[in-house]
Amino acid sequence: MTRTAIALYSGGLDSTLAIRLMQEQGVNVHAIHFTSPFFGVSPDTDSGKYDARTGAEMLSVPLTIMNLGQEYLEILRKPCHGYGKAINPCIDCHIYFLQKARELMISTGADFVITGEVLGQRPMSQRKDALRVVERDCGLEGLLLRPLSARFLTPTTPEIEGWVDREKLPLIKGRTRKEQIRLAAELGVNEYPTPAGGCLLTEVSYASKVRDIFGHSEKLKARDFRLLRIGRHFRLGAETRLIIGRDDRENTLLFDHVKEGETAFRWDEGGTPLGLLLGDANEEALQTSARILLRYTRCEKNAPARLVIVSDKDEPTFSCSNDFSAEDVERFRI
Predict the structure, then answer these.
(1) What is the DSSP string of 146-179?
(2) Cα 1 versus chain centre, distance
(3) On the chain, which terminus has fewer CB atoms closer than 10 Å, C or N?
(4) What are phi and psi of 259, to 5 degrees?
(5) Crossing angle of helices 70-77/90-108, nearest 10°?
């Protein structure tokens, strides 16, 4: 009887190898890829780069792309198992991913779940004790196989029942990737992305922005986190934020993200950068935002300036003075 495994699939080398090892043993694989404001491909756009869709096509496996929403964002706010060095709740994330994989396993009639995890590769989520916690809490005890490091771990049901030959699995652990690269050549895996962190939540510089959203939002919205990828961010009030583009690409992205009721503006003489004011665009907020934005233009210090609201079809203008110092700006920076 041919068995089927659900694979957590990032598109990276480790998860690709996990799938190929199962295929070598005659196991059918159905891949699941998660996407959020912090990682993953967009389910409805093509970046043109190597990603999980490219990899799944190369491996000839069906791919389910699951966009994580409100429930997932709330887990990030208060993770049961805490954060890593930044604001990355890796253990809670893995538990959640595997719970969703378990649901797919049940709904499709698959037999078990696999991941590309490597024992000791990541300090928070890939310790032996953390791997055991994840398996226990996701509801997949005995049915979660980590092919790259399985021989260092307790045998699973697929190995005990003979669905997978444990002795044919590699012995890989630790942070070096030499063995994965050797195995990739052996299995004919010639295309895969360069190793990278992948998840923005692991970046210390990004963490302060995420904490700011957590601290000022009763209901978390994916769009707020997507916007954190763009520009410089400033907190003007409990419900008011300013984003300023850093280059032409970001200015365009910000303009494309403007929603009804939001205010996008620029210096009338210089054109760039673009500022996007989120929240109540009252006179005080608009004046403060304009003074911050002017610090990133060539407007003469302490000179009066005219700004134009480009999100209004009539493009009204208003005036302020370029009188903020660097210290003034830093008071608002997130």
Answers:
(1) -TTTGGGSPPPHHHHTTSS-GGGS---BSS--HH
(2) 38
(3) N
(4) -110, 165
(5) 150
Residue 44: what pLDDT? 47
What is d(CA 244, CA 177) in angstroms, rounded to the nearest whole number? 39
Q: Give me the residue spans of the domains in the chain.
A: 4-187, 230-330
DSSP state of 319: E
What's the confidence (pLDDT) of residue 97? Answer: 98
CA 175 to chain centre: 21
- Residues making up the chain, counted from first to last: 334
Measure the CA–CA gap between 126 and 119, rounded to whole angstroms: 5
Q: Does the bond joining 89 to the residue before it have cis omega, within 30 degrees of 0?
A: no
Cα–Cα distance, 281 to 26 (Å, whole number): 61
For 108, the enclosing helix (H) or strand (E) is helix 90-108
CB of 189 closer than 8 Å to CB of 13: yes
> Which contiguous run of DSSP H or E holds residue 266?
strand 263-267
Closest CA to 135 of 187, 93, 98: 98
One-letter amino acid of 255: F
Q: Which of 307, 308, 299, 304 is nearest to 321 (CA)?
A: 304
Superfamily grouping for domain 4-187: HUPs (3.40.50.620)
Low-confidence ranges of the chain (pLDDT < 50): 44
% of the chain at pLDDT higher than 70? 97
d(CA 298, CA 94): 47
Tell me how far apart the alpha carbons of residues 299 and 193 are, in angstroms, rounded to a whole number.
43
Residue 327: HSE in the Cβ half-sphere, 13 Å Cα cutoff: 0
Beta partners for 242? 234, 277
| CB atoms near residue 97 (< 10 Å) | 21
Compute the distance between CA of residue 334 and CA of residue 206 in angstroms, rounded to an integer.
10
